Design the sequence.
């Protein structure tokens, strides 16, 4: 049995060539020219002025939130609105910056933050709305723009799962005061581990560069006026990113074709498939998630186990933030149910979705999925 | 004029081959087999049971200190003894873990922590002594072992600058309850950016692996009982490390030969050179530092400027921790002078010391250094 992994990247462009250039030139640290090129090219693709490459997508958010907090003089315990259905990285950056996350239910169709539920959670202490585009379909941004304007809030955009995606005619990654990306191996554009912060605000750009490099001073390296982190991306990571970015358009097309094929092959299974489109975007299918119908007698965990035994890798959906044991311990949980996201966790998981997935493999996966029902 | 940079690594072994293997196999994230191999081989070289590869040397200390604090139930504001003459990374890990650093003067000959000055700073709240082997010469560990035993303190060993070094018959990196390394491009063994935690304590090993991977649970990935970080090392970083490690012995020999050559060529300049050896170790010359004599009319900053203008790259010595503006702001500074380390900063800097430095370049550098006096 050939196991089909949940993700395999496509690395058959200039990745080797550029890596070899790093080795030949001796530039492997964060000072190399691929880092600058990757920052420039990726930010240009996304329509923001500045890019700050970092070690991964999780630390990208840590730096982004801190830069915002400092620029706008937010106080400790000020509040940031965030979706409950997301990865912990989005939310822990709020907490690590001594701000308070406020968890919002998600939409049952798009799985993104339910924008109709945001306003009632806004208080005088709210400073920002963090949106996280989920699994390849953007958040409905217009209501977010409207609320941000009405209440003078900043937008933090976690676009890790929405490379190259657009909301109407706006690019994902260009809609936040700061926007962040991950280039983990399962992302459209990968550097193995890697991340980037985008902004068009020069002050935030400079602050992020300062914070990610241990707050070294250019003219007096080891004297510190602040504490930062070493969150630098290396030139070898960026070399892979530059090669990947050359094929950005092609990769998006591949993902969309895969998603379409899964949609066709799985149209009649007793599960909800991703929304193929909304009135503001077509799905890019970063991953192809399915959510078991109520009449299916087993839950996602069992389904994933069955599929694993039949040679198909899967990954569970996010566990909602308002239910995390760590947040209960930290008194960050309000004990109010958010049933849509709770059900998504119980009933949802995603199928092999990597760029190296072949049509034959999609057919095998789909056939296997049908068999478990 | 050909500028001689302060560091250029040597990457002419199997680096390309292993990087190409990563690309061919598709394993570029932290899950790849080079990560496991690098952890196994490097920890074996250093004589500790377990290695935990991370994104860089700074975050290695963050994870190491947290693992110790949690295992031994240290309280917030408990104290950790640390050298004042070190990089900020060592000390900020103490602060980020809500512990209090206590800064100790350094020795004028070895530039390491002055072990005779530690005991008077030990209080009932002291929990650990952090040693940082400076510039390739180990700390005098016996007094540290004695104090650790007498007061029941843990030893945290920052061995970033002492790859392959020994203290008497003990390996650097094997003397701490936790020991940490950096594989930045200027280190003996480099991965561009990279780091590792070593320990022989299984509980700490498991805790570090858990903390560095966002506290994901193996059987329930997205449910979190704790908050961690994404501090993972990628397979492409580790691939470079594995290739480097194959030449570990050779690299140490090169560095020692370079140091010896500098010692010969600079023996009569009006500056203190590194101690070639002590009664417990021979210098490995991670970098070749010099400290201007008092009768030299200019300070390190001016000397570095003169050398830069003549085509020689240098880097300043560390600015002592007890004088950092950020620690004064945070009330972590006691306003007591530590004149040895203060003088080292004013008068010290280091010369080009990378593994790719040729004998001819060492001669040019030495000639240029002699010219500035």
Sequence:
């Amino acid at each position: 049995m050939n196991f089909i992994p949940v993700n395999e990247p496509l690395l058959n462009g200039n990745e080797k060539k550029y890596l070899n250039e790093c080795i030949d030139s001796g530039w492997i640290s964060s000072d190399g020219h691929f880092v600058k090129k990757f920052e420039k090219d990726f930010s240009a693709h996304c329509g923001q002025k500045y890019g700050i490459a970092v070690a991964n997508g999780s630390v990208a958010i840590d730096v982004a939130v801190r830069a915002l907090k400092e620029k706008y003089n937010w106080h400790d315990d000020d509040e940031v609105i965030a979706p409950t259905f997301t990865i912990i990285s989005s939310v822990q950056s709020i907490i690590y910056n001594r701000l308070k996350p406020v968890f919002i239910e998600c939409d049952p169709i798009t799985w993104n933050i339910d924008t109709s539920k945001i306003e009632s959670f806004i208080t005088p202490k709210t400073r920002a709305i963090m949106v996280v585009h989920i699994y390849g379909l953007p958040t409905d941004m217009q209501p977010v723009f409207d609320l941000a304007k009405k209440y003078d809030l900043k937008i933090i955009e976690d676009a890790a799962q929405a490379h190259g995606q657009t909301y109407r005619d706006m690019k994902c990654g260009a809609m936040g005061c700061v926007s962040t990306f991950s280039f983990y191996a399962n992302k459209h554009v990968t550097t193995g581990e890697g991340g980037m912060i985008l902004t068009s605000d020069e002050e935030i750009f400079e602050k992020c560069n300062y914070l990610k490099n241990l707050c070294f001073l250019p003219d007096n390296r080891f004297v510190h006026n602040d504490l930062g982190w070493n969150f630098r991306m290396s030139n070898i990571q960026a070399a892979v990113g530059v090669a990947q970015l050359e094929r950005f358009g092609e990769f998006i097309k591949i993902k969309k074709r895969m998603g379409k094929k899964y949609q066709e092959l799985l149209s009649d299974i007793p599960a909800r498939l991703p929304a193929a489109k909304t009135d503001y975007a077509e799905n890019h299918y970063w991953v192809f998630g399915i959510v078991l119908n109520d009449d299916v007698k087993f839950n996602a965990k069992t389904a994933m186990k069955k599929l694993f035994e039949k040679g198909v890798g899967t990954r569970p959906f996010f566990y909602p933030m308002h239910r995390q044991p760590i947040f209960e311990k930290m008194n960050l949980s309000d004990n109010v149910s958010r049933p849509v996201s709770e059900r998504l966790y119980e009933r949802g998981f995603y199928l092999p979705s990597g760029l190296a997935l072949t049509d034959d493999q999609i057919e095998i996966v789909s056939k296997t999925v049908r068999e478990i029902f």
